[in-house]
Write a structure and sequence with these properties.
The chain has 13 helices and ten strands. With 343 residues, the chain is α+β, with helices and mostly antiparallel strands. A hairpin with a 5-residue loop joins strand 4 and strand 5. The chain starts with a strand and ends in a 7-residue tail after the last helix. The longest helix is centred in the last third of the chain and has 18 residues.
Amino acid sequence: MKFSARTFHMNGVSISLSLPQYVEVMEESSHPVGGVDYPRTLAEFDAWFSSERDCEEYLCRLRWPRGFECPACGAAGGWQTGRGLLRCSTCGRQTSTTAGTLFEGTRKPLRLWFQAVWYFTNQKHGVSALGLQRVLGLGSYQTAWTWLHRLRRAMVRPDRDRLSGEVEVDETFLGSPDIETGGRGTDKTLIVIAAEVRGRGTGRIRMACIRDASAASLIPFVESAVVEGTLVRTDGWAGYGPLPRYGYPHRPTSQRGTRIPAHVAMPRVHRVASLLKRWWLGTYHGGISERHLEYYLDEFTFRFNRRNSRARGLLFYRLLQQAVHMDAMPYTQLRSHTPAGSG
């Protein structure tokens, strides 16, 4: 790996550190470049991250692409201490590369974490905790489960763009296949899906668990997932009726009035719902608790919205990029935590 020099200043003393050359390009490029910003193959991955120092430097560049900024005072500039910590040139606070990130407090090597992220993002249909445990040789199922749930929490950017153009919205149910009840009154978990119309195809999607199919549950989802002014297609359910009052042109299609099947009137959301159920049963064998279902929906959304990406290394890059801005959550909290969007 090629290195270039970077200088930090404090109290009149200049200290130069050797940093990977791909870091310099990462700062200047608006779109990540394979082989420059992220590894394209497993062979490149092994070459880039052969040591803990390589992993720390990569995280540092993702976290501070324009140079170190103190998390305490916000000042720019500092230097690396002999213990590997970054010391602020203004307030003197010392911080580690992993502090305040998803990796804070981990007792496992960062390289093992990187291997987990690479494996997780390179499996097209997802990864079970048991599968991750076997591949990485982790000592316990609990560790693998915790790692996967931390990564799922990092799959959604808080500031992600909302859907636009023209969007289909509908609900579906997810639950045990032995439950035969149907309709909006079933005991299964109710999920609302929004899918962009892109010609005859499907653009980006959003989904969430909701308490019920009332306007009080459906409208807030649309507001959080869809840009105002976007044409929203739905069925004739009354819960979508108030959409125009919230700035959304509304095109309802009543199945009773038109006799058009729902999967014909809104093919995109129904295709997404079908793929979701197949993924839920095929990858996780239906073994997802309702408490954590929202995070699995985030994973499905992350994978679906990047389904056409040929650069699997880019998914690795994006997930790490979001992980450095995500606080770690210990196992006990993950077990009891219910996502904010859950019903």
